[in-house]
């Protein structure tokens, strides 16, 4: 997305989901752009414009630069209106498996432009191989079954396609991605390792292929496996320097390794790509969005000042609000600001002011900021109840609106529930019921850790194990505090406040 990229500031509800962060899209790409097209070896059986634009679209598709990929595939269609694979690629831009997104209607409309029925479309294919690719996408967007059922049917088609030609590197790449796409409701490590096993042989033969690199980075995108992904990050950084998502993706590995300097630099480069594309369209730079969110987080974990980005993003959020450019859900600069401003509040004590929004709009941003107000109230020893009440009311609105925006999302609501439970524990602690509050906080932290591992910044602005460690440290219970901070760092590697807390607990709190 987003388009739909994940952060609940509730830090990852939806704001850090790259799907909604698609400001990187542009159909007016400069000549000589470097997106990895030179590493595409897909044999279309043709030469000329249709072939060249198809390869460019394929590289962009592997980079998750969906709007730019769609534009390239449409240029391929214009050059050869009967080229079935150009419609295949265009349709594939509407499937975002790692973001729990799929627009079947849009994809089917594209296929219908090729021919009105599946049979007629298959008749337009020019080889058995092309027919197999088209059959797979027809299955992905078929009329029968739920999205999850179709994801598995599509994977079966891709496995068969690859088995027919194990040397087809794009078949291997998309089969690996299809395996990842069957991990519904969060990261299932066995499936991610199965995908890695599918993709690694492709890395041995095509070590600069953007799809192989990209999907292996996703496969290894957790603290345990991230060292394996460093090989891919090093290569992906140079394969597609003009694809913002590619530049950002290497920060997934560095983030999981808590290499904050490298993560910061990757997102500086990713944001620069977006700003260059915006400038080509006559637009100013963007200081909100997915890449800036990760940039802010990386700076904060180094103890650096990120207030310049936060302040500029707020200006863009206020401009969005002033323009009335929002549906009730309200994704965009406003929610992006809510994420990074709340992170800044958690890490520095510089808490955000409310956005000038009405009581019936911008639910996502208001929900995130309500969580921040609750954390601020606990830190300042002021009443938590008003912020908690807002979180619950806005959470109900969010639960109603989310299926309309992202019908296949199964990740966000559990984290919303965790955020509310965290604040309920803080309210009990603030009331003086220390042992009960600590027990609630520990139970909440355990529940957070039990959810599927999420890539990127924590899905909750202040991990509950970190909060628990701070409370235990304040009570002089240093060994228990140290254990809580260690669990926090396992949950969110390299967090500055957890590292500092562990140091204090280990030194006796001094």
Explain this structure to me?
There is one protein chain. The chain is an all-alpha fold and 510 residues long. Helices cover 64% and strands 1% of the residues. It has 23 helices and two strands. The protein has a two-stranded antiparallel ribbon. The radius of gyration is 23 Å and the shape is globular. The protein starts with 48 loop residues before the first helix and ends with a helix.
What is the end-to-end distance?
46 Å
Number of helices: 23
Largest sheet: 2 strands, antiparallel
> Helical content, roughly?
55-70%
Radius of gyration: 23 Å
Which residues form runs of ≥5 with pLDDT under 50? 1-28
Strand order of the largest sheet: 1-2
Shape: globular
- Helix and strand composition category: mainly alpha
- Give the SSE order as H and E letters: HHHEEHHHHHHHHHHHHHHHHHHHH
Annotation, overall tally of beta strands: 2
Beta-strand content estimate: under 5%
Mean pLDDT: 92
């Amino acid at each position: 997305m987003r388009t739909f990229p994940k952060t609940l500031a509730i830090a990852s509800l939806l704001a850090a989901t790259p799907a909604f962060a698609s400001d990187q899209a542009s159909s007016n790409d400069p000549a000589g752009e470097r997106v990895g097209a030179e590493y595409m070896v897909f044999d279309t059986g043709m030469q000329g414009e249709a072939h060249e634009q198809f390869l460019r679209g394929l590289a962009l598709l592997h980079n998750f630069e969906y709007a730019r990929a769609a534009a390239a595939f449409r240029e391929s269609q214009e050059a050869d209106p009967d080229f079935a694979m150009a419609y295949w690629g265009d349709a594939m831009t509407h499937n975002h498996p790692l973001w729990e997104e799929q627009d079947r209607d849009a994809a089917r409309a594209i296929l219908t432009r090729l021919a009105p029925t599946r049979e007629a479309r298959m008749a337009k294919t020019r080889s058995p191989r092309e027919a197999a690719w088209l059959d797979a996408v027809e299955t992905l967007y078929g009329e029968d079954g739920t999205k999850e059922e179709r994801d598995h049917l599509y994977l079966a088609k891709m496995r068969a396609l690859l088995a027919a030609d194990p040397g087809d590197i794009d078949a291997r790449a998309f089969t690996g991605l299809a395996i990842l796409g069957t991990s519904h409701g969060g990261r299932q490590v066995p499936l991610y390792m199965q995908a890695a096993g599918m993709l690694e042989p492709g890395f041995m033969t095509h070590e600069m292929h953007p799809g192989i690199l990209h999907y292996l980075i996703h496969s290894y995108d957790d603290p345990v496996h991230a060292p394996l992904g460093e090989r891919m990050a090093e290569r992906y950084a140079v394969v597609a320097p003009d694809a913002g998502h590619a530049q950002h993706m290497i920060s997934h590995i560095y983030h999981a390794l808590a290499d904050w300097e490298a993560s910061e630099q990757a997102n500086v480069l990713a944001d620069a790509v977006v700003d260059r594309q915006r400038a080509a369209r006559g637009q100013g730079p963007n200081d909100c969005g997915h890449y800036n969110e990760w940039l802010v987080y990386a700076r904060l974990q180094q103890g650096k000042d990120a207030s310049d980005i936060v302040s500029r993003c707020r200006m863009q959020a206020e401009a969005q609000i002033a323009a009335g450019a929002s549906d009730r859900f309200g994704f965009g600069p406003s929610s992006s600001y809510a994420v990074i401003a709340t992170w800044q509040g958690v890490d520095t004590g510089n808490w955000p002011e409310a956005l000038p929004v009405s009581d019936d709009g911008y639910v996502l941003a208001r929900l995130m900021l309500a969580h921040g107000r609750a954390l601020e109230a606990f830190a300042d020893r002021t009443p938590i109840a008003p912020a908690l009440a807002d979180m619950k009311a806005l959470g109900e609105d969010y639960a109603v609106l989310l299926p309309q925006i992202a019908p296949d999302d199964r990740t966000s609501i559990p984290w919303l529930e965790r955020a509310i439970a965290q604040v309920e524990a803080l309210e009990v602690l603030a009331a003086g019921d220390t042992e009960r509050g600590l027990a609630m906080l520990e139970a909440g932290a355990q529940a957070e850790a039990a959810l599927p591992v999420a890539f990127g910044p924590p899905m909750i602005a202040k991990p509950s194990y970190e909060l628990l460690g701070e409370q235990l440290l304040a009570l002089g219970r240093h060994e228990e505090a140290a254990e809580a901070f260690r669990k926090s760092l396992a949950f969110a590697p390299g967090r500055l406040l957890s590292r500092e807390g562990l140091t204090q607990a280990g030194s006796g709190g001094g």
